[in-house]
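Quick one, tokens below:
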């Protein structure tokens, strides 16, 4: 009989921890990770590198404050993968609030990007779809999860290069 109570007690503790873990995961699912703005912040005509600044608006719809860190993003422009970035720094997102995260991504030039900027001179209102997908770690106290996100940002060449001037 004693063995039964020990097994029952251990099973209850493990079950309780699993239920708490599932509850916390459902709370962390109440975050949105949206692209607020993308600007080209560094480009020289004789350079083969571009730097984009991506501003994310992270909104917390849950009732617990959390820290967002270890953000890894992949970037595609008009369906063509162009690079990735990683930011380890953490930022606190208040309960039922939001905060902004800026991530700079330096891209090596490709024929596609060169053609895109050449087109900007001829047709500055050329539409551009920038897709951002990745993962971020959302943590509150000792519990944390890697949460995937995906977002598409539509802009024009004019808006994209506005950060240069």
């Amino acid at each position: 009989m004693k063995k039964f109570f020990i097994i029952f007690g251990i099973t209850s503790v493990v079950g309780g921890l699993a239920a708490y873990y599932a509850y916390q995961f459902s709370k962390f699912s109440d975050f949105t990770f949206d692209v607020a703005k993308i600007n080209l912040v560094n480009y020289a005509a004789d350079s083969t590198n571009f730097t984009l600044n991506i501003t994310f608006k992270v909104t917390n719809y849950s009732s617990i404050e959390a820290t967002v860190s270890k953000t890894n993003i992949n970037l595609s422009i008009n369906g063509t993968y162009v690079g990735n970035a990683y930011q380890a720094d953490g930022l606190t997102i208040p309960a039922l609030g939001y905060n902004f995260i800026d991530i700079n991504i330096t891209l090596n030039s490709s024929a596609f990007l060169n053609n895109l900027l050449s087109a900007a001179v001829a047709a500055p209102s050329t539409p551009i779809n920038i897709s951002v997908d990745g993962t971020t770690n959302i943590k509150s106290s000792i519990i944390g999860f890697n949460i995937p996100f995906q977002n598409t940002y539509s802009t024009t060449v004019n808006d994209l290069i506005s950060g240069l001037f």
